[in-house]
Write a structure and sequence with these properties.
The protein contains 5 helices and no strands. By secondary structure, the protein is mainly alpha-helical. The chain has one domain (3-176).
Length: 181
């Protein structure tokens, strides 16, 4: 894949990540600070299964595009995030098919673990020492700047963090939002 195509893919994914971040923050603010019934939260609560499935599917497909097509090898922490994200596609897919809202209790441990790994990676990626040392003996480093869009804000670790954060937000709305208010 040529560099122009990769750049446009990065811009597309970066724009989507920023939109998901805004969506998630607005949803959390409205959820915890609004005491009245809200159409935005009604929509999220009603459609959280297909939205969660779509986000988890995208968060599983695009890392494979980066590693298998573009040949950006994943680091050790990226592998762990994949371990926690990939099963969620099946969980949310089956839950969407069956309209089973109980998926929240099964998906939450995977989401929390993946979110913590992602926060850890992002902290050291953005605020840690600029080390060129690999995470493991393979020579692949978590600190490589393979994707750097929007002034360096959007990176592969930030894309993963956004996916976990938005899925946790959707589950929070689906679990805590009370329509009777």
């Amino acid at each position: 894949m040529n560099t122009t195509t990769v750049h446009y893919l990065n811009l597309f994914l970066g724009s989507g990540a920023i939109a998901l971040q805004v969506f998630s923050v607005v949803a959390l603010v409205v959820l915890f600070f609004n005491t009245k019934r809200n159409l935005f939260l009604d929509f999220i609560d009603k459609h959280f299964l297909p939205i969660s499935f779509a986000i988890s599917l995208m968060a599983s497909v695009f890392p494979l595009v980066y590693s298998e097509i573009i040949n950006f090898l994943p680091c050790y922490l990226c592998w762990w995030q994949r371990v926690f994200m990939f099963p969620l596609v099946l969980m949310f897919g089956v839950a969407f098919w069956d309209q089973d809202r109980r998926v929240i209790r099964y998906a939450l441990p995977l989401l929390c673990a993946g979110f913590l790994v992602s926060v850890y990676q992002n902290f050291f990626y953005y605020f840690g020492e600029n080390s060129s040392l690999p995470c493991d003996a393979s020579g692949i480093s978590c600190y490589q700047r393979l994707v750097s869009e929007f002034g360096g804000y959007i990176s592969i670790p930030m894309l993963a963090l956004t996916a976990f954060f938005s899925l946790l937000t959707l589950l929070a709305v689906a679990h805590f939002y009370k329509k009777e208010v």
